[in-house]
Amino acid sequence: MFLELIIKFNAEILPLIYRTLFVLSPIIVPALLIYISVLLWVRHVQMKYISNLKSFLFEIKIPKDIQKSPLAMEVVLAAMQASGAATYTEAYLQGKVVGWFSLELVSIDGQVHFYIWSSEPKFKKILEAQIYAQYPTVEIYEVPPEQDYVKKFVYNPLKHMIWGLQFKLTKPDAFPIKTYIDYNMDKDQKEEFRIDPMTAVLEFLGSATKGNQIWLQILIRKHAKQTLKEHRLVEKPDWKIEAQAEIQKIRDEATPEAKEGQYPGFPNPTKGQVESIAAIERSLGKMCFDTMIRGFYLAENEVFNPSYISGYIGSMRQYNSETLNGLKMKWFTDTSDAFKDWCTIFPFLTPARDRQQERYRKDFLNAYRLRSFFYPPYKFYKNNPFILTTEELATIYHFPGNVSATPTLAKISSKKSEPPANLPIKK
To answer: Which of 86, 273, 308, 353 could bridge to 269 as Cys pair (CB 3.0-4.6 Å)?
Structure first.
């Protein structure tokens, strides 16, 4: 039967396909060439536009005592809603793109630093004002371009070992990860009873010894439906449609099938299903971002410690939930195991494998340095963006309070306050 279908396909259907393509080729070929030309042109003008952006990098130094829940960071994140091209002229001639931001946690020789980078210079004052409004006791320093930590590190393959990775979600975007609300951090608690999931990451970063650097980068961009202005022939709807479909799917699974001649069964969801629906519905009321999370472990050859790699992955597991979503490793620069068997059988393939791996490392490091992912030159490098709400992002990146006792976390010794009203004026 199967053989007959193959014979019929080769004898009748395949020639018909060839004839159809031949007849339509005067239309298909020019249309395809035009489409490719437009994409190449868009890439060119976008790279030109991005190269002219005056990006900035903030380092935030926090005091020893912050009595704020991650909800304060949600307010800061809500201000990071840059707009894109308003007209087709801006989209296709000027190459204007939606501005993006980078939330970065960095450990250099065990000293932990908080950074926020933006591609949009107009957001410098806005972002600074929002941070001070929610965290009036922090100190914000603009890092000169030449002092950027990613530029200060000069990679030498003979001297350094570097390992990079990217994360992805374990389930569809509609399911949120485990957030600070699940850890009851939205409620007023005594400091000794508060559990901050970010502490595990900070403790891991603070454990790095001299000669080791650990970088964590969270790139975010305002999420919205994509149309022809975003260079899509077919409109891509907002993620909320997918989220509502997931809610309906859970409800259908919780509803017993009706037997013939009987009324439909009454929904009987499990506790996990109820929690999933509640979490998704809570996410629908939040602002959301296209997100990419990647990281690096960089060290001198003499002090390189493979245990930091497993520690990196393990430090992110507290955001995972069996009933909701989580983060897992999507891609990493060390591809030696994937080709180990082939190189054992064919030793002459080993140099090619090593060259490919080195190219991965350099490209990945350069993409990190440029904070590039959503647009050229490293558009969607090795991964696609996923959706995280302000609640999820604030869980992963916020300024911790006393609950974090990491000794190497750079903190300012005192907090700022207004001078007393009755202070005498010097004449």
So the answer is: 273
